[in-house]
Amino acid sequence: MVVKVLHTADWHLGRRFRGFREHDELELSRARFLAIERIFALAIQHQVDAVLCAGDLFDAPLPKERHWHALVELFAKHADKLPATYLLPGNHDALTASSLYREGSEFRRLLPDSVRVVDRPNSEFTINDEAVLYATPCQSHAGELDLAMRLPAREEGDTRVRIGMVHGQTFDMPGHQTNFPIDPEAVRVRGFDYLALGDTHAYRVLASAGDDKDAPRAPVVYPGSPEPNTFGEPGAGHVALVFFPRDRGRRPIVRRERVGRFTWRDETVRSLTALRTIATESLADTVLRLRVEATLDAPSHHEATRLLEGIAGDDTARGSAAVAMIKTEQLQLDTQEFAWVDALPESLRETANRLRALANGEDGATARRALLHLHRLAGQ
Amino acid sequence: MKFRKLSATHFGCVDRAEMTFGPGLNVLFGPNDLGKSTLAASLRCALLLPHTSSASAPYVSWSRDELPEVTLDLHVAEQTLRVFKRFGRVGGSALLHEMVDESTWSVLAKSRSVDQKLRDAIGWGLPRAGGRGQKGLPESFLTTALLGEQADVERILRAALSDDKSDEVYSRLSEIVGGFAEDPRVRAVLDVVQKEVDRAFDKSGKRRRGRGSPFKDVAEKITRARDELAELTTRLRETEAVEEQSLSLARARDEIAAEVARLVDTLRDAEEASDARAAEKEKRATAQRLRSELTRLREDDARLEAAQHELEETEALARDVEERVAALQERLKRSQERDGEESRRALSRRRTDREDARAQAEAALHALQRCRVTRDALRDATARLEDIKTREADADRAFRAAEATSREAKRRVEQKRLAGARAALMSAKAAKANADAKRRALREAAPDAPDAEVLRDLETTLRALSVARAKTAVGVEARLELARAYRLTLVRDGKKTSLETESITTKADGELKIEIAGVGTLTIRGGQSESHAEAQNLEAQLNEFESRFPRDDEEDREAWARGLRARAQEAETFAARQETLRKELEHQEGVAALLSDHAREVELRAAQLKELGGAEDADLDATLAALEAEERDSALALKRMATTRTEAVVALAEASAIDAAARAAVEAARAAAGLTNQDTDLAVLLDRAKTDLAAREREVEASNAELDGDEGSEQDLARALDDAMAERDAVQQALSRARAIVAERSREEERDTQARALQAELDALDLADEEEVGSDEIDLDDIRAQLARAREDLDDRDAELRKTEGALSQVGGAMVREQHRAVRLALKDLEERERELEIDFRAQRLLLMTLQEVEQERGGHVGRAIGQPVSERFEQLTAGRYKNVVLADALTAEGISAAGATRDVNRFSVGTREQAATLIRLVIAEQLGAPLLLDDHLTQTDDTRLSWFRHALREFAERTQIIVITCRPEDYLFASDLPDDATFKDSAGGLVRAIDLEKTITRA
Fold it and tell me: Measured at the alpha carbon of residue B226, what is the angle toward residues B220 and B228, in degrees to the nearest 5?
């Protein structure tokens, strides 16, 4: 091998996970740092020559201190074994005037020497005698410049492995117009052997098979986010290990490695049976959004509620799912099935009957909920 | 709830009264007209009457110019409160304190907020303090039942709980007396639900929003999310606007780039077409030349035919001449043989002379012929010159017409520009007016307000004064005894009152001044003199502030300082607005200056337009583009005209040269012909020369004939021979020429070859059709100009695009879009959670209400619940005579059961009714744990029943506080309960307190 690199991007440290409970937000936030630990371990295990971090490592240009400090500590912890690591500002953590990547910042001061920040356009870093990295940072949150096309082209007689690293979206992606559009042809036009990209959160290799004659010769790769950021990112949770063979006629070998812990699942159940099945599953590494769409009688409703509590947990106990977001707007009470009231004292029975009469009226939702409260309280 | 202490001052006929209540039965006794009912009223007023209410008017002090004051301490809901009220529209005040410990009170409410706070605390279902239509003492079922006035029996019996605006009392009574929820499961449900409802809703049923509210957390999160979303929406709009602009510019740029590409193609096509046309022209010239060549060859053929014919004739002639020469030679030979030499020489001379003459005539003729050729050339040149002159004149006219069109176009364009400039002038005027308005706004005087430093000084001084006053407010009391009544002016802590008296006891917090009219002034101050000096000093400082910022007489210092702060804030706002205005003014002045320049331009353009002539066109907007095109066309036409003109001038010069050359040639020909300048008619001369030549030829012929006719004459023969030989030579020459011409016929094949070659060449030219070639000139310059303009446009768009791309880097782009989406979804979730919570707690409340309703229906109504203990006691009181007091659910007395039937209360005696009313009140007070005020309620009750009440009241007093006001203490007390010389006496282990009002009340 001429050179081995680990390519990662889009850590989004400090990202808010809105819509989740506070402790779940913390869980998801912590998971990012654990994923970075695994990335570093992988780099050390494969003795790569460089770790390329292709932007959006933070969710904002100036994240909270606890987030960047935790990263600094991780770097310090692995400083003696970790190879040269290159941090590229992306569109989220752009190299703006207030960015923590600015020269002289506390973050920069605390980083080990082996960690380099790409803080100038067209920066050139020698990885080893036979490989060189060219990179350009994002200096704003949006732009129309094709940063890849602005990287220097291969000079005649330059036989080194040339790796380009920028952050942006290739033309074939929707909404590219403001997010640093990148022409995948840049890899060919600029004479790169590999174009390391960041921005999209799913692992993606452009024209890797090489069968397409029109496809770029060298790989253009998005490693994706090491942990998914939201539902609907099935390709997230990976990094790319890239091996450049000595035979320059051969394409680099790109291998996808999983580093993420969580699988994000978005489920809808429409029966108590389906809910019971999910409740028995192992969800320890699952971030679950569960919608319940069913009309159940009060005892079944009560059971469903208990099962959901078991999945989601609460402030005092963990649920079976690592993180859960439960949606019960469509979990309705069946007021036709009313046998449960027979066992109640007369006052409560009469109360239940009156509420049931209101259940189909103007404020039926309130009456149905009141019935559920009554069922719950009377059973306690 | 229990009353602890009551103090009234200047309250109607009561100048001063102060008492402390016991927890049980309190019997306040005293003679008539002492002010007992006034004391009861002071208690009601303290508890219920707003301090500014006009209903306090009856309680204005009878003897003093002082406002009535009352202080009531009470214990309610685990709190000990002190309410102080000074009644009066002007000078009135109210304070509500909460006791921290026995000597420390903290202020809970001031002024108007005191009453609502108090009403909230006692919870008697009173309407909101300060609500519309409230005058006097507020009324509710409980105020009537618990604090009802003397002998108000009917009112008590008819007071309906349902008249209350709030169902709070009903709920409480229901809960207390209903006796429902006996089933522990029902009780448990009720308890839990009640707690949840109380957690979520306040007494008025509104959602709680403060600490502990289950809605608070989500409401705060929603507020934060909305704020965040609003900010992100703004950023997103900026992003989208810039993106839209960028896309729109990129599209426009692409369109222009396409236009440039199209024009480049058009130009290339046009250049190719132009080259093709030039080549075609060249080909046509070649073809023309080839055709001429062919024509010439064909003419040569005709000429050869003629020459062949001529040759044949000439050969015949030659043969004749040869025969004649031979004949003449024969004759000459014979003549020589017969004539002498002399005769032949004479004939020969004459012939020679004639031939000379003929030669001269021939030369003259040739000269004239050359002259005619030259003249023809001259005519051609002159005609060409005339043609060129005509073309030049046409070109000149076209040029002038184009100039006129151009001038007109310029005039109209100038006119349009003038219209634009005038619009700009109007804008300038508007801008100036705007600027003037802003300038006027700037000239507005800044509000008179203290600056921040002064305000700080003022607040420091106020605080220092407060501290200094606190140091002096140690409390002073003075008692003044005078020999006779004097007019006194009391100044207590700065508050002045006047009265006429001979003795007075008064007190103040800090300073007390008594001015005795005509005697002198006594000033008593609490605290150290340094503190006074400091306070005085600070007062002086404040006076100085007040002199700068005057204070209204009725305005207290606190309000004044608040006002100053507000004014300072206004001044800051004003300054900021002034700054904004100043900036806007600067900007608009810049705009106005710019527009003034436009105005000057207007004048200039107007002048230019005037020079160009013509009236203004009213609708130039629609035709401006056409006019500019026309102007461009005119310019092109001018350019073409100029070219034509130049060509014409060159042609004219050439023609003039040819003319000159032709004239020179004519002159030369004339000279050669030996003509004078007078011989101007060349034709005449030519004819004359021809005639002369013919004559000469005739003479020669005659000579020849002479020679021929004189066969006998040797000389004639010799001449004839010479002539014949000359003729033979001429014929020989002609023959040679003809032969030479005919010989050319032998090259006919060569000419045919040449002609075929020419035709082939002509055919090979492949001339295009006239239509195909087109007759219109291609205006390459115009296309180049369009291309240059399009390229300039493209450069402009590129510059704009770069600028927009620069702006794009300042906005959030996809990041903001992501964040906006995340916050929007989170907000939706939060709002859903809030709705869920709302439904959840509304459901709890609905459950509670429904369950209570069911329970109440099951357990009986409040009336029956209250009626039961009342009836029991009433039966005891009447020794079984009357059994049942029937109360409606709203606690109105419906009737009393007597003799097996329920009868209307009005059918019973006054005494019985007052006893029933008292019992109802006692039971309600007992059930609610509220104090009961009985102001001589049993005046119509006989001793037996009074005795029963004496005991019954003590029994009730074990559970609730009762205050009886009476002039007959023995109706309620035993003799041993009465105090001797003391103000009050406690008995029955503290359950009963007898208070001697004579010793407590000072009448006014």
Answer: 105
- CA B318 to mean position of chain CA atoms: 118
How many helices (H) and strands (E) in chain B? Answer: 21, 19
Other beta carbons within 10 Å of B718: 26
Q: Does A374 lie at the interface with B, CB-CB under 8 angstroms?
A: yes
Strands A115-117 and A169-170: unpaired
As a whole number of angstroms, the distance between CA B514 and CA B496 comes to 10
Q: What share of chain B is helix, strand, coil (3-state, %, to 5)?
A: 65, 15, 20
Chain B's closest residue to A181, CA to CA, is B814
Nearest alpha-carbon partner for B920 in B883, B870, B874, B954? B870
Averaged confidence pLDDT in chain B: 77
Residue B821: closest C-alpha in chain A: A18
pLDDT at A7 over 90: yes
Q: In chain A, what are the domain boundaries? A: 3-258, 263-379
Q: Is the pLDDT of residue B672 over 60?
A: no
**Chain A contact present for B239, CB below 8 A:** yes
> Is-contact A340 A299, C-beta < 8 A?
yes
Which residues numbered 173-212 in A keep a CB inside 8 Å of some CB on B? 175, 177-179
Q: Is A143 near chain B, with CB under 8 Å?
A: yes
**E runs forming strands in B77-160:** 79-86, 93-101, 104-110
Between chain A and chain B, the number of residue pairs with CB atoms below 8 A apart is: 120
Give the 3-state DSSP-derived string for B136-192, with helices as H, strands as E and coil as C.
CCCCCHHHHHHHCCCCCHHHHHHCCHHHCCCCHHHHHHHHHHHCCCCCHHHHHHHHH
Give residues with Cβ within 8 angstroms of B412, minimum separation 6: B617, B620, B623, B624, B627
Query: Is residue B52 a contact partner of residue B91, using CB atoms and an 8 Å limit?
Result: no
**Continuous segment of H or E residues that includes residue A324:** strand A323-327
Task: Please state the rounded mean pLDDT for residues B721-747.
Answer: 72
Question: Residue A370 and residue B847: Cβ atoms within 8 Å?
Answer: yes
pLDDT in tens, B497-543: 888 888 888 888 878 888 888 888 888 888 877 787 888 888 888 88
Look at the block and give the residue holding tokens 């062919």: B294
Biggest alpha carbon–alpha carbon distance for chain B: 231
How far is B902 from B370, CA to CA, in rounded Å? 169
Report all structural domains of chain B as residue ranges with CATH numbers, in order of start.
2-180+860-1003 (3.40.50.300), 475-526 (no CATH)
CATH homologous superfamily for the domain A3-258:
Metallo-dependent phosphatases (3.60.21.10)
Give B847's contacts in chain A (Cβ within 8 Å). Answer: 351, 355, 370, 373-374
What number of other Cβ atoms are within 10 A of residue B331's Cβ?
Answer: 20
Flag whether pLDDT at A52 surpasses 50.
yes
Tokens of B988: 């029955």
Given a cut of 50, whether residue B711 has pLDDT beyond it is no
If residue B932 lies in a helix (H) or strand (E), which one and from where to where? Answer: strand B932-935
Tokens for B856? 């109440």
Burial class (CB in 10 A: 0-12, 13-18, 19+), B613: exposed
CA of B783 vs chain A CAs: smallest distance (Å): 34
pLDDT, position B23: 93
User: Does A18 sit within 8 Å of B246, measured CB to CB?
Assistant: no
Q: How far apart are CA B653 and CA B657, in angstroms?
A: 6
Write the pLDDT tens digit of every residue in B318-343: 788 788 778 877 777 776 666 566 66
Q: What is the pLDDT of residues B109-151, one digit of tens each?
A: 888 889 888 888 887 767 777 766 667 777 777 787 788 775 5
A148 is written with which tokens?
């890849």
pLDDT, greater one: A305 or B66: A305
Please indicate if any CB of chain B lies within 8 Å of the CB of A122.
no
CB contact under 8 A, A91 and B815: yes
